[in-house]
């Protein structure tokens, strides 16, 4: 079933192109793909001659992004030595963690 009723050509053959893209990307990459499309349609809406359609696409991508689970971010706030000890302890216990450092 087409995710966008006005673009049914994206699910010809019984599978939605967006589902294929999601299956081939990591969650982080897919989130970036959705954000990129939100920016693309938002930035071109005044120049392409299809303002309402571009806003509808922006809304669709925003909705799909909002349906994704929240990204869990590990930040370096707090005592650096305690954070390092906690992380090393968790790694020793065999748990995998992706660390993201946010710049302020």
> What is the total tally of β strands?
0
Distance between the termini: 42 Å
The residue-averaged pLDDT reads 77
* Helical/strand content category: mainly alpha
Task: Extract low-pLDDT stretches.
Answer: none
The protein's oligomeric status is single chain
- Total of domains: 2
Binned, the helix content reads 40-55%
Helical segment count: 4
In short:
The protein has about 100 residues and is mainly alpha-helical.
Write the layout of secondary structure elements.
Elements: H1 17-24, H2 27-44, H3 51-66, H4 80-92
Helix pairs in contact: 2-3
Description:
With 104 residues, the protein is mostly helical. It has 2 domains: 8-66; 72-104, no CATH class. Helix content is 53%, strand content 0%. The protein is built from 4 helices and no strands. It has helices spanning 17-24, 27-44, 51-66, 80-92. Helix 2 packs antiparallel against helix 3 (51-66). It starts with 16 loop residues before the first helix and ends in a 12-residue tail after the last helix.
């Amino acid at each position: 079933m087409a995710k966008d009723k006005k673009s049914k050509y994206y699910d010809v053959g019984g599978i939605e192109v967006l589902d294929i893209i999601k299956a081939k990307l990591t969650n982080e990459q897919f989130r970036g793909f959705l954000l990129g499309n939100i920016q693309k349609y938002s930035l071109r809406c005044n120049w392409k001659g299809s303002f309402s359609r571009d806003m509808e696409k922006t809304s669709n991508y925003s909705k799909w992004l909002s349906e994704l689970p929240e990204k869990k971010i590990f930040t370096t706030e707090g005592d650096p030595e305690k954070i390092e000890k906690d992380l090393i302890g968790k790694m020793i216990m065999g748990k995998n963690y992706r660390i993201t450092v946010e710049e302020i």
